[in-house]
């Protein structure tokens, strides 16, 4: 039983009865151990960090390798605090984690595992018909815990496309077309400097016409009469 939870007596009796029922069922295939109530018969791990799930299933060969850990919850124990205190630790164990919850708490358990990123191999629902519990598989995760524990690789940068340079050969490949580089533009010529405006031409002085010889000739003196 969780150290942070005190179930009502009736729920605790029903919880321990389901543990013993599943323990007898799993003994046909596994070497099974159980921890009903406050008992700590079969640990997972050693030392102060050891875990005590409701049912521990080992292989039947000589190695007795841990295969499955099973946790049975009641209506009171399907909550956020229980998920962080126990389910999160069970989900990190390198074994399949099976969670059993009442049929009315399936969606709550599914949401708690998703929100807290808890790896659960299988989620089973149960309900009691008369004195006989009925179990139904409602979720199965086929991906092993080791695959999810690996960090996601960083996305690789897109490879650079090599630029195919032109080849001097007269025969060009039909696939790789040469890249024709544009001829460099000649440097722009500096704008010609504006020539200074010519000074306005001064008007030429008019030359005075020389008087003609006829006009300048003095008249002959008149002869006096005798």
Furnish the topology, listing elements before pairings.
Layout: H1 9-26, E1 31-34, E2 55-58, E3 66-72, H2 80-91, E4 96-102, H3 106-115, E5 122-129, E6 132-140, H4 145-149, H5 213-216
Parallel strand pairs: 3-4, 4-5
Antiparallel strand pairs: 1-2, 2-3, 5-6
Give your account of this protein's structure.
The structure is a single chain. This protein has helices spanning 9-26, 80-91, 106-115, 145-149, 213-216, and strands spanning 31-34, 55-58, 66-72, 96-102, 122-129, 132-140. The protein has a six-stranded mixed beta sheet, with helices on both faces. Residues 149-155 and 166-174 have low confidence and may be disordered. It is built from five helices and six strands. It has 226 residues and is an alpha/beta fold.
């Amino acid at each position: 039983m969780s150290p942070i939870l005190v179930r009502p007596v009736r729920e605790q009796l029903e919880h321990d009865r389901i543990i013993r029922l599943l323990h007898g069922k799993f003994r046909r295939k596994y070497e099974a151990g159980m921890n009903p109530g406050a008992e700590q018969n079969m640990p997972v791990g050693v030392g102060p960090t050891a875990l005590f799930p409701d049912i521990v299933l080992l292989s039947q060969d000589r190695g007795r390798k841990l295969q499955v850990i099973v946790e049975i919850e009641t209506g009171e124990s399907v909550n956020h605090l229980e998920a962080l205190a126990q389910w999160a630790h069970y989900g990190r164990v390198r074994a399949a984690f099976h969670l059993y919850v009442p049929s009315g708490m399936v969606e709550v358990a599914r949401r708690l595992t998703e929100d807290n990123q808890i790896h659960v191999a299988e989620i089973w629902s149960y309900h009691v018909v008369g004195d006989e519990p009925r179990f139904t598989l409602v979720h199965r995760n086929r991906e092993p815990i080791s695959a999810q524990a690996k960090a996601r690789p960083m996305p690789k940068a897109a490879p650079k496309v090599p630029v195919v340079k032109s080849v001097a050969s007269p025969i060009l490949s039909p696939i790789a077309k040469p890249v024709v580089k544009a001829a460099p533009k000649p440097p722009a010529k500096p704008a010609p400097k504006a020539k200074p405006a010519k000074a306005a031409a001064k008007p030429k002085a008019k030359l005075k016409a020389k008087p003609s010889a006829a006009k300048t000739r003095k008249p002959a003196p008149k002869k006096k009469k005798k």
